[in-house]
Amino acid sequence: MRSWILAAVCSIAAAGALPAAAAEMTADQRKAIESVVESYLLRHPEVIERALEALEARREAAKESAAQAAIEKYRGDLFDKPATPVGGNVDGDVTVAEFFDYRCGVCRRVHPIVDELVASDGKIRRVYIEWPILGPESVFAARAALASRHQGGAKYLRFHDLMMESRGRLDRGKVLALAEKAGLDRRRLERDLGKPDIARIINRNYAIADALSLNGTPSFVIGGKVIRGGRDLETMRRLVADAREAAEGGRTEAR
User: Fold this and answer.
1) With CB atoms counted within 10 Å of each terminal CB, which end of the chain scores lower, N or C?
2) Are 70 and 212 in contact, with CB atoms under 8 Å apart?
3) SS3 22
């Protein structure tokens, strides 16, 4: 029990909750204070719980603050980069940027939800951010998707949908078969896989995801908010409405 209490106190102290003067105490003074603290916490263990909750809240706030800074830093890459695939209403008033991996089961389950969100709104600009994090097959699928854009943006969107809707292993053969089904020239696609712009886009996406502290796919940036993980349709609609309201508020203040 004593070691657990002291470990908790040390965690709180490391976050700056205890005075810096504590580091200058003698061994006897420290031992006396530890005894008093231990006695108090044994009688009031809820104090540790509240302190750790406060510590976690500060950490989350710091993470969100860093994410906001990252959104501002990468705003052009997230929302306006010509090399980034775009769907929905390209002139929409709210951008929904999705970080995804074609081999991610949750991404596949969320895919029809995002489709319905965009189809039912009409004013959403959808940005597709290839973030292959589940191994070499994911990387190949992402590279193939980006290479398909050299044959037209509409074919990328069709190819994207087919890969998201596919079941079973998404290996090289499956990806190329789906490319042909999407109307792509397979030989040209295989040649375009090596184009340097593809590696640059994927590496940029890794950097943005890291700056946003994303912990997996799918993740979204909607307006100025980072959403980690999938959401149901009503939640997504509410997030879009919040982003739209925030944007309208910002324009009103600017006037």
Assistant:
1) C
2) yes
3) helix
